[in-house]
Amino acid sequence: MTSPDEIATIRVQTRLEYRLEREPAAHGASTPEYCGICDPLTGFTSIMTTSLRNNLQDVTNFYRDVAGDHLPAIAFVRPFESQAGHPANSTQKAYEDFVMDLVSRVQSNPSL
Fold this sequence. Notes:
Mean pLDDT: 75
Strand content: under 5%
Shape: globular
Distance between the termini: 34 Å
Number of strands: 0
Oligomer: single chain
Number of domains: 1
């Protein structure tokens, strides 16, 4: 049986992961647009302590890749927190709008 750590490592090695990576602001303060516990791959030392960490990408890189006609076979996209649909700081409509925008960007590029 493959462990969760092995699965996470395989996913990142093959560059299948896009995510919002917001570095903490000065003095360790987080930005309101990033949720560390909502970002599952940051919990794996096999990723965060190796060069595999570089395969975790900002969602804006996904947008750039869509416009540039090159995407990985699979992309997991984590929205900004204000668009994640969590009741504490977002709405279901904001999440639906995020997903619709994502789908629209991909569908509007016929070469993908």
